[in-house]
Please model this.
Amino acid sequence: MKDFSLADVRLFIKAVELGGLTLAADVLDVPKASASRQLQRLEASVGHVLLHRGAARFALTEEGRQFFETAVDMLRAVDRAMSSLYADERALTGRLRIAAPTYAGRQLLAAHLPDFMAAHPQLQLSLELGNGHVDLFRDEADVLLRLGREGCEELVARRLATVPMLLCASPAYLGRSAAIVTLSDLAGHAFLIGGAHRRVGEMTVPTVGQPRSIAAATVLHCNDPDLLLALARTGRGIALVPAALAAEALEKGELVAVLPFVPLAEEEINLVFLPGRRNSRKIRAFVEYLLDATQAERPAGIRQIS
Model:
């Protein structure tokens, strides 16, 4: 067995966790063109094929399974050792400004910020929760949580989690029209959705694989899912909201799931920062901490994926 690169091991572990080399390369900011070469180099170093990979199959070999179990422990030990070497002599100072949508911020930050603050007592945190647009280029924040990938083209985006989504409406609203049995039955309804305004009179249902465009009577766009939920309760239309946020209203019978058997694409939550600040110690520490923390403890209604 030859010596191997820790970067290659990290890529292999992440590919196994996410189920694909492309996803792993994206999360680790590795050029997709080199990801396959890194895996081949690792396999050459250990002397075994570690992954079956092809158009229809991506799975560990028996040797890959054995190596994966040991490699995860090894990499965690190395990361802990490196962190302990620099924790005291390179304490983080200054101010870190964090911005996040209200819902995502409450779900992902409330449980984990106390430990981060305790680990870095000399670092001053500024946290702003809201549903307005935050412009990193105007220096309005150092790092932000953003729903979806739209607008991230010129930024570094680390996928943190995915949020299961749900179509729902009040019994009173649904009682005013014919039963909704198929996607086509959604035509002509009023919709309450987040995100930016697109085509007038059209609703895009984010079905898995291929989003479906539906002719709508009206579409109300709002970047506050709590408000969308409140409007749905009053019978103003069919809302597309995080499933966990609607759970209590569903249980009370205030809302009813619409087409619950139709799988909807989950909404991404990304940690985003400027490329020029990739080497900022305070940003890197926060991003890596939150990725690790949410992997260890998943908030209700949000599935960690990185």
User: Anything to note?
Assistant: The chain has three domains: 1-90, 94-163+266-306, 165-257. The mean pLDDT is 84.
